[in-house]
Specification:
InterPro entries: LarE, Ni-pincer_cofactor_biosynth, Rossmann-like_a/b/a_fold. The active site is at 177 (nucleophile and sulfur donor). One of its GO terms (molecular function) is sulfurtransferase activity. This is NAD/GMP synthase domain-containing protein. By secondary structure, this protein is α/β, with parallel strands linked by helices. The chain folds into two domains: 1-165, 3-Layer(aba) Sandwich (Rossmann fold), CATH 3.40.50; 178-256, 2-Layer Sandwich (GMP Synthetase, Chain A, domain 3), CATH 3.30.300. The protein is 45% helix and 12% strand. It has ten helices and seven strands. It has helices at residues 2-19, 30-43, 59-72, 96-114, 135-142, 147-151, 155-164, 190-205, 230-234, 236-248; strands spanning 22-25, 47-53, 76-80, 120-121, 211-216, 220-225, 253-256. The strands form two sheets. The chain has a four-stranded parallel β-sheet with strand order 3-2-1-4, sandwiched between helices. A three-stranded mixed β-sheet has the order 5-6-7, with helices on one face. Helix 2 links the parallel strand 1 and strand 2 (47-53). Helix 4 packs parallel to helix 5 (135-142). The longest helix has 19 residues, at 96-114. The model has no long low-confidence stretch (mean pLDDT 94).
Amino acid sequence: MYQELMDKYDRLKDYFKDLGKVAVAFSSGVDSTFLLYAAHDAIGDNAIAVTASSCSFPKRELNEAIDYAKSLGVRHFIVESEELEIDGFAQNPPNRCYLCKKELFEKMFALAKEQGIDYVAEGSNLDDNGDYRPGLQAVAELGAKSPLRDIGFTKSEIRQLSKEFGLPTAEKQSFACLASRFPYGETISEKKLSMVDKAEQFLLDEGFKQFRVRIHGDNVARIELSPSDFPRMYDEAFRLKVYDKLKEYGFAYVALDLKGYRTGSMNETLGL
């Protein structure tokens, strides 16, 4: 099994060698960190990292991206991508992710061209095929490469090799942009993005690993936790601590989702 996984990794490196030069869309998440590591391993300085900075991208993630690219010795570029200025984005339609990804990757391709690079690679994996992800449509339309999906890497395989290679993201929680915390059709604002960001940072600081803070309306927080973390939230003193802190951030009501954490829970209303 281990040798099969290493053979797959060798095919990933060959993929990059065939491209010659590539700009990696780098968010500091599990997938894109592994992708950047592999690109650098395969083609060295012919791989660059490009990270988008916006109000839906937490500052901690941007700082982690900067630190890792520096530690790897990869040239790192940051593009400003203000989603709230994209026509229709703030109204949060079901194709919100398409609108965002299209604008973002257009900027990444423009930057890549300036650096004499024809290809942009993004980090979706084989598991991403099973959920509603309109952003992948934009990726395909613009011609971005998806090496992890093309080679057939699953999330668990990426984590396994990340651990083998000593990557800092091997056990990092999965992350999606903060706009994914809003129900479709509810207006996204910088204020509400900041409320969610602060609430999630608080739970991270308290030691929670996999969770989401979803926002409903202007002031309702719905916390999704791994069921194994429920007992801690049931403790009265800690429960009130969480409530008081989120109220400080602007929430009037704080609820615990009894089904627990799952990716794409906002897609459950689409009837797909």
